[in-house]
Amino acid sequence: MLIGAAYGEKGREPTLLVRPVVVEDPRHFYPSEHSDFVLAPRVTPRVAEFFRENGVMFLDERGNCFVSRPGIFIDVRGRTTASAAGGPGHPGFVDARPRKRTASLFTPRRAQVAAVLLARPEIAALPIRYVAQQAGVSTGTAMQTLELLARSGYLSSNQVNGGYRLERGDELLSAWAQSFATGLGAELEIFRGTGDLKRLAHLHPLGWVSGEQALSHLVVGGETAHIYLDDPAALSEVLRQGRFRRAEKGEIHICTAFWSTDGGRESDLRPPERVLSPSSPLAGWPVAPLPIVYADLVSTGEPRLMEVAEQVRSRFKF
């Protein structure tokens, strides 16, 4: 059973809409235009994570619960039996002792929100809907992420015009970048392999350049490449032009760009610079947002790129 609550104007009672839903497989669930609240006997961990990522609130008989509304955040997970919700010796017992919050700050969707905040700290003070649009996530996910970041001390409330203000930006950048390779970066990757980058020299830019190829004026003779495509359908063209071949440990990484490009217009996150070195096969391609460039450099684990990563890090103004 699912209850969708459509919150009306101030002073009006909320409208409750009830519709049945199957929650065993997230592929069968489509969030409605209203604020969905799922009530179910059991919400599996896989489905629960899907709901959290999409800002869908839920509660099951075991006591697993997720609620994210302005000023309210509840996240209880890991209960696998009905007795776990009941407590010791009493079917209706509710354990009010503080529990350690287990919600990760850097699930892929939350990491996207953190990335746009690191790229443009001032965006934290803007409406949540705008933050969500720039990060490519739902409004519910953006709201949830901002609340989690505030609880973790990375954001503070902006008393002047509402919204938030970025705090401890350096620490957030470090934590976010360290989780990138195995989190958001891994999810965005659609190809890894080998090939001839020089064959891309005459290819019209189809996305963004990151990592050392974005800094070819600082790095000479680098072999790794990180490309983010605006449209994943363009992958076949890039593979054909570069004669790329899949390889588990290949140094060419092709990913999907998640940040907003405003339907083809210049995004607020698009940096003014482009790949500068005329010797680079990707000369003229736009450079990915600075946090992405930094994270891709760090994720290589190559000592020769750590100094370059520190140069990139020094460009952040928190």
Could you explain how this protein is built, in words?
- With 318 residues, the chain is of the alpha+beta class.
- The protein folds into 3 domains: 84 residues, no CATH class; 73 residues, Orthogonal Bundle (Arc Repressor Mutant, subunit A), CATH 1.10.10.10; 126 residues, Beta Polymerase, domain 2.
- Helix content is 30%, strand content 18%.
- The chain has 10 helices and 13 strands.
- Strands 2-1-3-4-5-6 form a 6-stranded mixed β-sheet, with helices on one face. The chain has a 5-stranded mixed β-sheet with strand order 10-11-13-9-12.
- α1 links the parallel β3 and β4.
- α3 packs across α4, α3 crosses α5 and α4 crosses α5.
- It is globular and about 60 Å long.
- It starts with a strand and ends in a 5-residue tail after the last helix.
- The N terminus is likely disordered.
Q: What's the total number of strands?
A: 13
Question: Helical percent range?
Answer: 25-40%
Rg calc: 22 Å
Structural class call reads: alpha+beta
Parts with pLDDT < 50 across at least 5 consecutive residues: 1-16, 82-103, 263-267
Distance between termini? 46 Å
Number of DSSP helices? 10
**CATH architectural arrangement of the largest domain:** 2-Layer Sandwich
Strand order of the largest sheet: 2-1-3-4-5-6
CATH class of the largest domain: Alpha Beta
